[in-house]
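Below is how a single chain appears once it has passed through the pipeline. First comes the sequence as given, then the structure the pipeline wrote out for it. We keep one example in the README because the format questions we get most often are answered faster by looking than by reading.
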Amino acid sequence: MSVLPPGFEDLARFSEWILPTERERWAKRLASTMDELQEFYDAAFARIDAAAEYLKAVPYTDDMPDPAKHLLWLYCSLVTISFAVECWRQPYVPDSGASSLDAVVEPAI
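Resulting structure:
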C-alpha cells in the first residue's frame, strides 16, 4: 500500500513530514534548514488544490484510510512551515527567544 493516495506519488519524497501531531511538526520545522523547508513548501503548495479536492471527498472519521490521513498530515505540516517560508525566512519565530510548543493545562476549579 502506498503512503499517499494515488496521484500524489510525487509528494512521497516528503514522507518525513507526515507527522500526526503539532508538536512533531513543530520539532521537524525547527530541525530543518530553510532549503529543506523551501523545497517541501514549493512541492506541496503546487499541489494544494488537488489535495484539498481529494480530502473533501474523504470522510473525516477515526477510520479514515491511512493514505488520506497521511495526505492530511502532510498538509498540516505545510501549514506549520508556511509562515517560516513566506514571512520570516527562518525556521524559528523571530525575536521569540527559546520558543517551544509546550502547553500548560490547569485543572478545573
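Residues 66-88 form the longest helix (23 residues).

See the next section for the split statistics.
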